[in-house]
Amino acid sequence: MATITTTTHSYNIPGLANTDIRVQIPILILSTVPSQCPFTPVPDIFNLRDLAHTSTPNIRPDLVYCSGGLNSLSDTSKALLAKDLNIEGVSSVQLPCTAALAAIDLKEFERGDGRREYVRLYGEIMEIYRPSVRKVLEFLRDVHHEEGGRAGNDRTGILAAVIMGLAGCLNRAASRGASGHLDAIEEGWTVDTTGMVEFSQVKGSVMDATMEMAEEKYGGMEGYMRDALGFSDQEIEQIRANLRR
């Protein structure tokens, strides 16, 4: 197994995110990066970060956070969220899907470094998870200026891409903010399983391709919100304004 070595504490996070799963990253990096911007260290929460810190002036700080699973928060973690981030609760928005997500076939990810299959998968998520995506965007539509941010967790990579696309982020910035999410690895899958290497790495290039797919299919994330989610032009402008305030 190859190993990355470093003598500096200033790390290239997009570069680390693109690291091959077979390359061992030193424990110093793994223990240091999650405590640095754009991440916010909170016990029991993995990969918590503020979308305002992903190269865009169009999303105000402390409004939209993304993270890994939030199913096992301790009272200490909940207190930190409320005190430091003004997040007083976590509400589930995992509403019923419009259809069942197709089973993942790892062999499909082996082709073209997984990009084509991930774009297909993310396109499917954008369609069948429309009720959950719309619910989050409704909160952003109705949020008041004085309210703090609230967190939820449901296909957060796609949600981040939709929000950042609406905010006017360039595809490169949006892909950096949205990448880093990974669908569950099923029991029995190993690094030697065909397609596992490609599946395990949600690279920025994958999200770039997903943003391009949304542009071609919907005319961008604004078109997705209008045509697939049913928001009016006025509602879309309200969400965009609330992101900036």
UniProtKB/TrEMBL annotation:
Name of the featured protein: Tyrosine specific protein phosphatases domain-containing protein
InterPro entries noted in UniProt: Prot-tyrosine_phosphatase-like, Tyr/Ser_Pase_IphP-type
Pfam families per the UniProt record, alphabetical: Y_phosphatase3
TM annotation in the entry: none
SUPFAM superfamilies reported for this sequence: (Phosphotyrosine protein) phosphatases II
GO molecular function: phosphoprotein phosphatase activity
Native organism: Lepidopterella palustris CBS 459.81
